[in-house]
Amino acid sequence: MGLEVSDVVAGYTREVPILNGLNLTAEDGRVTVIIGPNGAGKSTLLKTIYGYLKPERGSISHDGESILGYAPKDMLRKGIAYLIQGHSVFPRMLVEENLELGGWILGSERERREALERVYERYPRLKEKRRLPAGILSGGEQRILEIARLTMTGPRTLLLDEPSVGLMPKLVTEVYEEISKLKEEKYTILIVDQNVKKSISIADYVYALALGENRHEGTKEEFAERLDEIVKEWI
Ligand SMILES: Nc1ncnc2c1ncn2[C@@H]1O[C@H](COP(=O)(O)OP(=O)(O)OP(=O)(O)O)[C@@H](O)[C@H]1O
């Protein structure tokens, strides 16, 4: 069933709504990409889904159950994790300590250890570097650490805000290879990224937003054909 956003109106103040009746479905086990010009409301949508902003109107559900009013820990318990925009690695803390932060809702030492083992199995390069300060990792590795940290609580749904921002092209490719692996593992993934071509390349379904409204939507193939035309509308 995945994630469903229906007729959502939300913003940072009551007077100025940023999302104006948005609708979106992120199907289970699929990659859904949101594109749009700067200020279209893409990040605001992810913040609203994750409960940081309270919608004035509309509904948001996950696997058919309303998640409106949930705190981040409730989201994690329901299997939804969120990569916020910008850098969120703590550079002076060890790689392992950064990962442990991702498991903050796990109750026992045993659960935390098992989660770490699972993540290390999936990300052997992080295991090799677990005793290093995270700030020593390359930009791409830090982003992969952030993504790995998201998986500590065993989520099924990932919200990723600008996973490739600020990375040079080679590292963008590395990060997208990691996201492609998560796609193969059937995570439900909702991505916002300025790198439209890269994000669409792994998408199953794409939404283009403008001014907090739905502007276009369709499959990757439909978008690939119309991409130049759609991007021209933003300029
Ligand atoms: N914390 C905030 N307080 C008030 N207004 C905000 C805040 N964050 C964003 N906005 C406004 O909300 C609107 C949408 O911003 P948002 O960051 O969601 O856009 P976006 O589509 O993600 O753009 P970008 O690609 O530039 O990140 C913008 O007009 C922005 O100025």
Automatic annotation (TrEMBL):
UniProt domain ABC transporter: residue ranges: 3-235
PANTHER family assigned: HIGH-AFFINITY BRANCHED-CHAIN AMINO ACID TRANSPORT ATP-BINDING PROTEIN LIVF (PTHR43820)
Pfam families the record matches: ABC_tran
Organism: Fodinicurvata halophila
Molecular function terms, GO-annotated: ATP binding
Keyword Transferase listed: no
CDD domains in the cross-refs: ABC_TM1139_LivF_branched
Family: Belongs to the ABC transporter superfamily.
Name of the protein described by the UniProt record: ABC transporter ATP-binding protein
Alphabetic keyword roster: Amino-acid transport, ATP-binding, Nucleotide-binding, Transport
